[in-house]
Design a protein that fits this description.
It contains twelve helices and no strands. By secondary structure, the protein is mostly helical. Helix 3 (34-47) packs antiparallel against helix 8.
Length: 183
C-alpha cells in the first residue's frame, strides 16, 4: 500500500493530520536549500529502526537541537554538543545517529567547497539508479544504508515513487519539476 493510500485510513485524526501535512506539503517536493536538505537527511537517518511518525512528532525538537539544521554550526559541534544531543529527549538519543549528523555536516561543508552547494553535488551525480546512489552515499556519508538513501532521495524529488500517480499531490510535485522527471 502506498503512503498516499495509507494516510486515509490512519486513526486517530491527529495521527492522520500529522502524516497528511508532511505528505501534502513536503514529501517528494524538491528542496533547494542546503540546510533543509541536510535536515531531511538527518531525519531520514534518525528514522532507521523507528516509525516515520516518531520522527515527524520530533521534527521541531530536531530543528531546535541541531540549530535549525545549520550545516556550518553542526559541523563545528564539539564534544559538549554531542553530549547535549545525547541527553536531549526531544530527539532520538542514539550515539551513532548523533555522530552521523555531525560528521555528515562536516562532509557537506567539504562538498559545498568543491561543488558550490550540497544541492549542486546531488545534481552533479544525477541521474543514477538506486544502487548507484547507495554506493555513492555509502562512500560519502555516515549511517546511510539503502532504505535511508532511497527515502531521502524520494523525499527530495530525486527518485520517483513518493506519490502514487493517482494521488492529487503527484501533480503538484510535477509542477515543481522534480529531478526524477528530468531523466
Amino acid at each position: 500500500m502506498s503512503y498516499c493510500a495509507a494516510i486515509e485510513g490512519m486513526q486517530p485524526e491527529s495521527r492522520r493530520e500529522l502524516h497528511k501535512r508532511y505528505h501534502d506539503n513536503h514529501y517528494g517536493f524538491p528542496i533547494h536549500d542546503d540546510n533543509e536538505l541536510f535536515g531531511r537527511l538527518v531525519m531520514e537517518i534518525n528514522q532507521a529502526g523507528l516509525s516515520w511518525e516518531t520522527i515527524l512528532k520530533k521534527e521541531e525538537g530536531f530543528r531546535k537541537a541541531y540549530d535549525d539544521f545549520d550545516i556550518q554550526k553542526v559541523a563545528s559541534y564539539a564534544e559538549s554538543d554531542r553530549e547535549r544531543l545525547l541527553n536531549d529527549p526531544a530527539i532520538i538519543r542514539n550515539k551513532l545517529k548523533v555522530n552521523a549528523a555531525i560528521e555528515n555536516a562536516k562532509t557537506i561543508v567539504e562538498l559545498q567547497k568543491e561543488f558550490g552547494s550540497f544541492e549542486k553535488w546531488l545534481e552533479h551525480h544525477h541521474p543514477k539508479t538506486l544502487p548507484e546512489w547507495m554506493k555513492l552515499f555509502k562512500k560519502t556519508f555516515k549511517f546511510t544504508g539503502g532504505e535511508i538513501v532511497n527515502e531521502f532521495l524520494m523525499s527530495i524529488g530525486y527518485l520517483k515513487g513518493s506519490h502514487a500517480e493517482n494521488c492529487p499531490v503527484y501533480d503538484e510535485v510535477l509542477k515543481h519539476d522534480p529531478m526524477w522527471n528530468k531523466i
